[in-house]
Specification:
Layout (H helix, E strand, L loop, with lengths): L3 E3 L6 E3 L4 E3 L2 E3 L2 H12 L5 E2 L4 E3 L2 E3 L3 E3 L2 E6 L2 H17 L5 E6 L8 E4 L4 E2 L6 H6 L15 H11 L7 E2 L13
Parallel strand pairs: 3-13, 9-10
Antiparallel strand pairs: 1-2, 3-4, 5-8, 6-7, 8-9, 10-11, 11-12
Helix pairs in contact: 1-4
Length: 182
């Protein structure tokens, strides 16, 4: 039982996260590091844990900021439900053009995202990172192309080729995405 801990943000037992380093930044988990690498393959500028907010529902710091998007990464739907009130409150405090998303699982789960609003959550928001980047949409569009294609497969192979020996990865995937994506 030593490999499992009870985490306050997840109901029940969960494997302990392994802190991992990517681009000189210590991430709380490999999953977060893989998302950072995936954003790099898409040539998206991101900030990890940009700043914290004091909310009525408690203190909260989003995992990523990508322009006017805040992204929370959670391993399971149960874990996402545990931060849902904070995500909704944060969404209500932000200017209209800002958006809050919760991605569930690793980047290979490209269709598992929630878009969070002040009063509602679209649990099948249909947002496509690939369509957002490759089609150069200025804001997320909920009619995105969700089907995996060559560019998706190429970028995900890059991300999953990363090795985290002792929690460290020396790869830097900025600009290494498929040439059509640049």
């Amino acid at each position: 039982m030593s490999d499992f801990i009870i985490r306050s943000d997840i109901s029940g037992f969960s494997p302990k996260s392994l802190p991992s380093w990517y681009r000189g930044i210590e991430f709380r988990s490999r999953m977060e590091a893989r998302w950072a690498a995936y954003f790099d393959t898409l040539n998206l500028d991101w900030i990890y844990e940009p700043e914290g907010y004091s909310l009525k529902t408690g203190n909260y710091c989003p995992d990523f900021q990508l322009g006017k998007l805040f992204i929370e990464v959670k391993p399971t739907i149960e874990a996402a439900y545990n931060v849902l009130d904070k995500l909704m409150e944060l969404s209500g405090l932000l200017p209209y053009e800002w958006q809050v998303y919760c991605v569930i699982g690793n980047p290979s789960s490209l269709g598992t995202q929630w878009c969070v609003g002040e009063d509602s959550v679209n649990r099948d928001c249909g947002f496509s990172w690939r369509a957002f980047v490759y089609k150069q949409w200025g804001v997320p569009d909920f009619c995105g192309d969700l089907e995996m294609d060559y560019e998706d497969e190429y970028n995900l192979r890059l991300v999953y080729s990363m090795r985290f020996e002792n929690g460290i990865c020396n790869d830097d995937l900025r600009g290494k995405g498929h040439p059509k994506c640049r």
